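Sorry to interrupt, but I need a hand with the structure work. It will help me judge whether the discrete encoding reads sensibly. Write everything out right here, beneath this request:
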Amino acid sequence: MTDDACCAPSRSDEPTTHDAPTVDATGVLPDLIEVAAGDFVMGTDHGRFPADVEGPIRTVTTADFAIAAAPVTNEEFAEFIAATGIETFAESDGWSFVFGGLLPDEFPPTRGVVGAEWWRAVEGADWRRPFGPHSSLDGLGDHPVVHVTWKEASAYARWVGGRLPSETEWERAARGGVEQATYPWGDELTPGGEHRCNIWQGTFPMDNTLDDGFVGTSPVRSYPPNGWGLFDVAGNVWEWCADDFDERPNHKVIRGGSYLCHDSYCNRYRVGARSSNTFDTSTGNMGFRVAA
């Protein structure tokens, strides 16, 4: 198992046949937060996950850009599907990765990820049925959409006339003007005992105490925004970025961590942390937001 498999497993290290959906820009851009051109200090010297290459700490310049305040929700993605008629890869391929702790006790046996057996390859899991064929989106309309590949996220962004954010844009916006803090709000995870993000509490992967009130995804905007008005840039769902992670063009950057992150095995909910996944992978803890 690689270090990133615990966070979001991959279908394969080799790209599969997964064509990018063709869509016209007929959707409507969400309200975006404008970020003026400028410098910021990017990266960390955390060192716990050397393969993630979080450093070196360096000053980076971004041009003007704009970015959505929150990840794309199930309601928003449903409008995209209704307008374009596309079928996601999880739907056409018949399965996606689901965290085993979200499956009912009587759920049939499924394939697990070696070394990260809490991840199950569940037949019938997709964006409409996030936990498998027994589930639905009832009550989850304002939750971030999951089980969406990088190419499908990119297609949605094109449909609304935008794009995925670059990794540099994502980190600058996520920091919200707070230079080199561990989290978007500072260096303390729960200042004054207040939870500021949706991550795992307890002993992973067996016991989630639910101190933050959520067992899986949470509605977007459930926690206070950062200094620039962005929600959910720590925890809830990993977010696809436009960039290649390394020399393998099928590996794309994901940022922000998810509801499964815990310091005992993966504290990538830090604002400077990064990970990756293959463009054809979909999981129950990966989503995205739009930039322009």
